[in-house]
Write a structure and sequence with these properties.
Elements: E1 8-15, E2 20-27, E3 32-40, E4 43-48, E5 51-58, E6 63-70, E7 79-87
Antiparallel strand pairs: 1-2, 2-3, 3-4, 4-5, 5-6, 6-7
Length: 107
């Protein structure tokens, strides 16, 4: 990972026919990534080119935790890259999917 601050943006869309999310991200280090995400039961799976995340919400939805894995090519096995635990703090009580024209209200 690069040193210093990295800022980024992620654009997420939902395909109701496939029941999946398409995601594109861009960061201040010049990185970009495209992934697909699915939800089955309570497990979220994000898959991109050589990268995969599997995780779930825990503690009444206040924590989202899981593991990122990498592989060098489609024939190789996934190997653990890093684990993630995101915890909700402050006044944010819920999140929702918004139509792109609607402003995001977090407070």
């Amino acid at each position: 990972m690069p040193s210093g601050n990295t800022k980024g943006i992620e654009i997420i869309g939902f395909d109701p026919d496939n029941k999946s999310f398409s995601m594109q991200s861009f960061d201040s280090q010049g990185g970009k990534n495209t992934m697909q995400a699915t939800v089955q039961d309570d497990q979220w799976t994000f898959i991109g080119d050589g990268v995969r995340f599997v995780g779930r919400f825990q503690e009444s939805g206040n924590v989202f935790a899981g593991a990122w894995e990498l592989r060098s090519d489609p024939a190789s096995d996934w190997r653990l890259w890093l684990t993630v635990r995101l915890t909700k703090v402050g006044g944010l009580q819920s999140a929702q999917l918004l139509h792109p024209a609607e402003p995001l209200q977090l407070a």
